[in-house]
Amino acid sequence: MSELNVETREVGEITLLYPRGFINAHTVRHFEDEIRKALNTKHFKLVVNCEGLTYIASAGLGAMMGAIEEIRGNGGDLRLAALNETVRNIFEILGFHHLYRIFPSEVEAIRSFRDGEGAPS
Amino acid sequence: MSAARGQTGGRRERAAPPRRPAAAARPDLALVVPSETHFLVLIKELTKRMAEAAGFAAGVPDRVALAVDEAATNVIEHAYHGATDRTFEVRYENRDGTFQVEVVDTGAMVDPRAMPRVDLDRYVTERRTGGLGVHLMEKIMDSVTFQRSARRNVCRLVKRKD
């Protein structure tokens, strides 16, 4: 069983990440590596499509927090799309929905970048 | 059974064994887990099932499972510093009014009160990523306590059923 698989694709200057499975202390390194690959190639506009993400623990949230300053410092943002109820609930418990822009779908997250919408203040 | 014993020559009926005092109650389930992150998902799934069996409403078992996952992660990462050759125990108790999980390790003493409080603004500006697990545990559970006793760390997580 694959615990976490992360596919990526690029749409223009936007990098889309598709984590499938769960992110906890056991799998978080793989998720971090995929974020890091994007940043190393100067891609700072990221959308994490969470449609296939069943569960995220604080390790996964920490991975995003660890990268967000670099991302936003380079004019980009990390945005989330298609969270299931469990994952959304975890974001809300921590107040992360105030820190990250969350969209119902990947299309809307991509559009927000194209419309030039900024990161949460 | 007791009627049958009553017919044996007038011997006194055997007294029922004394009830175990509540304070010494055995857990409903105790699990010894190797200190490998590979097992975290197992703990999460088991906790969810135990919380469901305890009668919590939909959504609550998922959150309780996350809190216990975080407690176990703390043991592996902080008490055992990532060593994979240790074990820790997860103990479940389902009582009338509460559902309790204890995560018990024999590693280094970890004082969660020494962990920085979560300040989301500072998390962004200082790129801090620690302390989120304890914060989650406290947000989800009604009570989270840490005790050091007989060289063991006991993290006790309690969720009320009301």
Describe the structure.
The complex is a heterodimer of chains A (121) and B (162). Chain A has 121 residues and is α/β, with parallel strands linked by helices. Helices cover 40% and strands 28% of the residues of chain A. Chain A is built from 4 helices and 6 strands; from the N terminus they run ββαββαβαβα. In chain A, strands 1, 2, 3, 4, 5 and 6 form a 6-stranded mixed beta sheet that branches. The longest helix of chain A has 16 residues. Chain B is of the alpha+beta class. The N terminus of chain B is likely disordered. The chains are: A alpha/beta (121), B alpha+beta (162). Chains A and B meet through helix 2 and helix 3 of A and helix 2, helix 3, helix 4 and helix 5 of B.
Number of DSSP helices of chain B?
Answer: 5
> Low-confidence parts of chain A lasting 5 or more residues at pLDDT below 50?
none
What is the distance, rounded to the nearest whole angstrom, between the alpha carbons of the first and last residues of chain B?
39 Å
- Total strands of chain A: the figure is 6
- The oligomeric status of these chains comes to heterodimer
The low-confidence runs of chain B, each spanning 5 or more residues with pLDDT under 50, are 1-10
Write out the strand line-up for the largest beta sheet of chain B, numbering strands in chain order.
1-2-3-5-4
Q: Can you give the helix content of chain B as a percent range?
A: 25-40%
Alpha-beta classification of chain A: alpha/beta
How are helices and strands ordered from N to C of chain A?
EEHEEHEHEH
Order of helices and strands of chain B: HEHHEEHHEE
Count every helix of chain A, treating DSSP H or I runs of 4 or more residues as helices.
4
Which of globular, elongated, flat, extended, rod-shaped describes the shape of chain B? globular
Quote the average pLDDT of chain B.
83
Sketch the major β-sheet of chain A: 6 strands, mixed
* Rg for CA atoms of chain B: 20 Å
Roughly what is the average pLDDT of chain A, rounded to an integer? 93
User: How many extended strands of chain B?
Assistant: 5
Largest interface: A-B, 26 and 29 residues
Q: How far from one another are the termini of chain A?
A: 40 Å
Portion of residues in beta strands of chain A equals: 25-35%
